[in-house]
Amino acid sequence: MVSLPILQFEEKIVQTVQDNPVVVIIGETGSGKSTQLSQIFHRHGYSKSGVIAVTQPRRVAAVSVARRVAQELNVNLGEEVGYAIRFEDRTSPKTKIKYLTDGVLLRESLSNPELSDYSMIILDEAHERSLNTDILLGLMKRLVKLRPSNLRVLITSATLDGNKVSDFFMNCPVLTVPGKLYPVEILYSNERPTSYIESSLRTAIDIHVHEPEGDVLIFMTGQDDIEKLVDKLRDKVQSLEEGSCMDAIVLPLHGSLPPEMQVRVFTPPPQNCRRFIVATNIAETSLTVDGVVYVIDSGYVKQRQYNPTSGMYSLDVVQISKVQADQRAGRAGRTRPGKCYRLYPSKVYQDELLDVTIPEIQRSSLAGSVLYLKSLDLSDIDILKFDFLDPPSSDTLEDALKQLHLIDAIDTSGSITNVGKIMAELPLEPALSRTLLEANEYGCLSQALTIAAMLSAETSLLPGRSKHSEKKRKPPPDLPDGSGLGDHIQLLQIYEYWHQIDYHIGWLKDNDLQVRGMLFVRDVRKQLSQIIQKIAKGNLDVQEAESERERRRDYKNLRKALCAGYASQLAERMTLHNGYRTIGFKSQLVQVHPSSMLRTDDDGMFPDFVVYHELISTSRPYMRNVCAIKVSWVIPIMKKLENLNVNRLSGGSDQVTDGEQRKSSSLLQQKNLAIEQDDRESKIQAARERFLARKAEREQSLGRKAKK
DNA sequence: CTTGTGGCA
């Protein structure tokens, strides 16, 4: 503990912080910055005038670091040293050092914009550049001007962008604290491999045969590649001559692995046995595997990116940045000197890899973040000019404004509305928070809460189609089917059934539903209910009786509420086939994702209009999680689209550009088209719906009986 | 006719 490098710099750090409102600390791995900085300033009296806050990008980190600091100070966790993460606040009035996720700090800033409880805010791991960290960086820049005398801000970062952060904070001082990593020898390939699975395999076996003991960590891009390599590696290791080298264990490691499989990497291997851990970038920062001496770095990573013009996400394999490459290499030097095999030439590292990873804020939809910033009521700030360390493109900001306007969160001049203010208080995507408010008007809040919670679950809850299993798929054993109306309704029905059987875990397992995910959903739903009750200052019906629901099997009100929430995520079916054209974004042809529960009518056709939760481009552009809606609900949204003026939303000039004019006239055509369709098909549509509803009811009651 | 890098309120 005493040997932590950072303690040798204590006086220097304290002195610098005393003289400067913002200081950047470059602390390499093992410097002890996460546990020591807070204690240093606690010792020097900074906790007398307020709490010292340390933010972490991840919940496990906030908890584990707080635990360690409490131990080192020999106090009970939750008293002088505490932490706060979603669903769990372990702090008390005695708390002087508080570890929290940056998401929690953002929420706190909503109710107390000056964050007056804190005398010092330490943004740890800022180089990871999470969306939340980036917003906090912008807020901190304002806050130190508001509280120059009684707030100190520390930002920890990586070597490669310390100066950039310093520039952002008016050339604040940068202190570098060495780490405690052992040297890592970097070995490059002569050329880029044609298949990096094969290349990883060769390198791994080479290490196994020729290098002394020590575990091998291999970075791959995703689950598929990991499974392939794990299989090949196991085969190869088995085929090696008995006694020619030590034993080997091959372990996969990625986020969709069940927790009990993930923790296997924490049990040390038996004597004279080498472990190969084949991992995604989860092992870059989130999980630290002890005993790794060799790292194999493919040089690639999977990244999700957002296209603001089309509203479409894609998951692409891209080259890592130098920061990531260095981070990966560092994983080999935690216990003793190690080696890192980069499966690309040094020239690629030098010339092609970006210095730092493109921050998340430039790769995501910003509707939620923009709403958040608007709700802070920073009167002097035009959102397009908000001072970000790396500003998002104006396309992304305009897209966010447009989406927010379509769901009534901001008015035509871009100011936040009362509806928007309430929405911002809910920890949800704007589409879902808007749905909740609308559902409350229609008397189906309880159902909407469930859907919002289900869609908040980070990973997919439903069973995926396993590839190696037989092709004919069995109908899902017990799962409801959304009455054919789509995936939102199915998610609702699944949760409601689980609720009825008292959250029985066995039922989840029997139906391949993720237990962890569903428990998370239950927590989220509870939290959302509490927040919305508090906002309404009254008794909202968040736990509607089952008998009530039974009478409305077509979920009409609920679907109407979804339509309001997803006003910017509409699609219209093509006349002759089941493809859809998106409305609102640059119009594109998209398909209903094949996993969807949306049902076709007797002619094999999907509904004329749907809302979708997400556009994702994989093998083709798909809508994931769709819900059938009626054309009459769409008309008012079309009208709004037609009158939309993005320039005004962003507080710019009122003049309509040529481009805007063209856009709105084509929207007008869209609208007319929709009305024609309405006339032609409304009767048929009504008949279909009645039919579907009846059929669904029949099936529902049949399903129930069969179970009993 | 088929997706899931990693996080967070």
TrEMBL record:
Residue stretches making up the Helicase C-terminal domain: 204-377
Coiled-coil intervals: none
Catalytic activity: ATP + H2O = ADP + phosphate + H(+)
Protein name (record): RNA helicase
Domain of life: Eukaryota
Feature: compositional bias, Basic residues: 465-474
Keywords: ATP-binding, Helicase, Hydrolase, Nucleotide-binding
Pfam families membership: DEAD, HA2_C, Helicase_C, OB_NTP_bind, WHD_HA2
SMART domains per record: DEXDc, HA2, HELICc
Residue span of region Disordered: 463-484, 648-681
Residue stretches of biased makeup (Polar residues): 648-672
InterPro entries in the record: DEAD-box_helicase_OB_fold, DEAD/DEAH_box_helicase_dom, DNA/RNA_helicase_DEAH_CS, HA2_WH, Helicase-assoc_dom, Helicase_ATP-bd, Helicase_C-like, P-loop_NTPase
Enzyme class of the recorded protein, top EC level: hydrolase
CDD domains linked: DEXHc_RHA-like, SF2_C_RHA
All residue ranges annotated as the Helicase ATP-binding domain in the record: 14-178
GO molecular function, one term: ATP binding
This enzyme's EC code(s): 3.6.4.13
